[in-house]
């Protein structure tokens, strides 16, 4: 490791001095190495999963208690690809149809009530459907409706409110989603620096635009995991580096000097996939230094962390000044059209809106972007967070949940890994997502990933079972491995949730039905493949018969024509 970089992350004396700001929702920060070591230990052990009987019970719950959800989502499959519209909807054994969401709870169509740790994927830090925000939004809708296309006071209110809490965000351009905002930020960085290449961190999610579906979910997977339908040339100007690895980052920054230069380094501040890949406390500061050294912009994607980690975002928590910040989720308070890019005036001004023809600018837009409803909901939510100290309280709920889960993991001697960054709680039961194939060499990453694929698939099955087990015990998680807490999670809610987790963990065994399910899946695959072969054979026989028939018909035609010609000749 380069000496300077080594000093920043590994210097033990610096770690002893880490003082976390109590105004933020993160009260402790574990070293990335330690978490990674725990994850490695888990992967070195057999897979743990709910036992066979328990799995039957879970599936019975779905069949007997979720009949209406089953019926509607089965019908929906006819009209909706995959049957659900949202990537975060848990599909195993089938999705649940929600009819009510309030505070810490949601209720499904069949009347089952769940403790909600999905929280819509992060935007509802106040808890679902906050009363203060909803009342004012109703008034707005009564008066001006959700959208006008012209200026609304709420646009000013939210931009100035963000600036009050995040002084680095001198100006703010509100957009329709995190995906769009990441696209815009990169475009601004290219306009501002005149350089082309972008460096992102493996496993990080910055939306689904063409150039961003690169190195998704698992570090080192570049464009060979999820990038179907995207021409490989779309990735001509993007590099992927290993999470928390400053040497690899510096290597690419150096290399890029002779390849068009780096416009920006783009990171998720608590680590890729909302901290699923841990980073060290000093990582963000170190990346800032490297960006300055190599003359590129530093972009922080605060779509999840903005107003969750604290009102000052991760940039306040880590005390780092990014050049550009990407917003989403909480910026519209759980209402639709949540996105935006903010930062230094000199950069954000490139996105000047209004009818400003002829100006050199980074073109961004959106018919519904910054509509009065989204802007006002975001502003009111930030105000409410401030009033209620929501980030700190949600963080305390996250600590209580993570501590309780750790106690349960020990009680049942499970290899599960629990850690949290305040209100973002990670509960890795299977570790399907905890692989890292980062390497300087594409081929090496690819071969490595291919080799691990069967094990990853096995772990994914266990992860789905655990998610379904939580659900059937009244706990909604994000894909069975992440839990977002909110202001609505009182000690009573968390303790009730822990009781339910206790019931689920009691059902877990080494090995368990993962193998059975895989055998069943293989049997289905084998049956499908023999059906395919049989159809192919039948088609071939049909084609053979058809061509033989055609040949007989053609020969008969020929004979007929021949005899007609002969008849003509004999007439002559
Ligand atoms: N960046 C991060 C860090 C995210 O977590 C997400 C969404 N989960 C996005 C960008 C994309 O945001 P959106 O879904 O609003 O497009």
Q: What do you see in this structure?
A:
This protein is α/β, with parallel strands linked by helices and 572 residues long. The protein has helices at residues 3-10, 12-16, 32-44, 52-65, 67-76, 131-143, 153-165, 178-193, 246-256, 272-275, 283-294, 313-318, 345-348, 372-388, 390-411, 442-472, 491-505, 514-571; strands spanning 48-50, 98-102, 105-108, 113-116, 171-175, 197-201, 238-241, 262-267, 297-301, 324-328, 339-343, 417-421, 424-428, 475-476, 482-484, 508-510. Helix 6 (131-143) runs antiparallel to helix 14 (372-388) and helix 16 crosses helix 18 (514-571).
How would the blueprint of this fold be written?
Layout: H1 3-10, H2 12-16, H3 32-44, E1 48-50, H4 52-65, H5 67-76, E2 98-102, E3 105-108, E4 113-116, H6 131-143, H7 153-165, E5 171-175, H8 178-193, E6 197-201, E7 238-241, H9 246-256, E8 262-267, H10 272-275, H11 283-294, E9 297-301, H12 313-318, E10 324-328, E11 339-343, H13 345-348, H14 372-388, H15 390-411, E12 417-421, E13 424-428, H16 442-472, E14 475-476, E15 482-484, H17 491-505, E16 508-510, H18 514-571
Parallel strand pairs: 4-14, 6-7, 6-8, 8-9, 9-10
Antiparallel strand pairs: 1-16, 2-3, 3-4, 5-11, 10-11, 12-13, 13-15
The structure holds 4'-deoxy-4'-aminopyridoxal-5'-phosphate.
């Amino acid at each position: 490791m380069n000496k300077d970089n080594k000093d920043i992350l590994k210097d033990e004396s610096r770690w002893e001095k880490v003082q976390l700001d109590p105004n933020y929702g993160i009260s402790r920060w574990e070293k990335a190495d330690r978490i990674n070591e725990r994850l490695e230990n888990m992967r070195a052990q057999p897979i743990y999963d709910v036992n066979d009987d328990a799995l039957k019970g879970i599936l019975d719950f779905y069949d007997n208690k979720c009949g209406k959800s089953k019926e509607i989502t089965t019908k929906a499959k006819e009209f909706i690809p995959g049957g659900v519209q949202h990537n975060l909807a848990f599909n195993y054994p089938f999705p649940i149809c929600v009819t009510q969401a309030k505070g810490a709870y949601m209720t499904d169509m069949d009347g089952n009530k769940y403790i909600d740790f999905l929280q819509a994927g992060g935007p509802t830090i106040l808890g679902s459907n906050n009363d203060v925000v909803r009342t004012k939004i109703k008034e707005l809708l009564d008066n001006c409706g959700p959208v006008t296309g012209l200026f609304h006071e709420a646009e000013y209110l939210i931009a100035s409110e963000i600036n009050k809490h995040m002084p680095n965000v001198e100006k703010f351009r509100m957009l329709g989603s995190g995906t769009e905002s990441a696209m815009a930020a990169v475009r601004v960085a290219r306009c501002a620096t005149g350089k082309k290449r972008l460096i992102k961190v493996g496993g990080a999610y910055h939306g689904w635009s063409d150039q961003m579906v690169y190195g998704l979910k698992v570090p080192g997977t570049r464009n060979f995991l999820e990038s179907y339908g995207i021409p490989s040339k779309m990735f001509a100007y993007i590099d992927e580096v290993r999470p928390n690895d400053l040497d690899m980052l510096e290597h690419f920054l150096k290399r890029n000097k002779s390849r068009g230069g780096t416009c920006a380094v783009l990171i998720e501040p608590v680590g890729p996939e909302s901290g699923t890949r841990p980073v060290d406390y000093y990582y963000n500061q170190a990346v800032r230094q490297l960006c300055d050294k190599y003359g590129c912009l530093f972009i922080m994607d605060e779509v999840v962390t903005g107003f969750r980690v604290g009102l000052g975002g991760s940039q306040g928590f880590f005390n780092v000044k990014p050049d550009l910040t990407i917003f989403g989720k909480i910026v519209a308070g759980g209402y639709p059209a949540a996105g935006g890019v903010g930062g230094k005036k000199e950069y954000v001004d490139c996105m000047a809106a209004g009818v400003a023809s002829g100006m050199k600018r980074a073109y961004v837009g959106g018919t519904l972007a910054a509509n009065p409803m989204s802007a006002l909901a975001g502003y009111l939510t930030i105000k409410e967070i401030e009033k209620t100290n929501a980030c700190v309280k949600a963080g305390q709920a996250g600590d209580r949940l993570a501590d309780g889960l750790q106690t349960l993991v020990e009680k049942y001697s499970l290899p599960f890994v629990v850690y949290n960054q305040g209100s973002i709680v990670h509960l890795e039961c299977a570790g399907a997502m905890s692989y890292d194939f980062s390497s300087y060499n594409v081929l090496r990453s690819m071969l490595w990933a291919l080799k691990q694929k069967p094990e990853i698939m096995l772990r994914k099955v266990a992860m789905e079972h655990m998610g379904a087990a939580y659900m059937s015990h009244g706990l909604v998680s994000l894909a069975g491995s992440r839990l977002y807490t909110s202001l609505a999670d009182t000690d009573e809610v968390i303790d009730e949730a822990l009781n339910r987790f206790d019931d689920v963990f009691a059902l877990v065994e080494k090995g368990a039905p993962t193998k059975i399910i895989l055998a069943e899946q293989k049997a289905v695959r084998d049956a499908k493949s023999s059906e395919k072969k049989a159809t192919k054979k039948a088609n071939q026989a049909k084609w053979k018969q058809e061509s033989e028939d055609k040949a007989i018909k053609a020969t008969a035609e020929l004979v007929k024509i021949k005899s007609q010609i002969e008849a003509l000749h004999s007439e002559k």
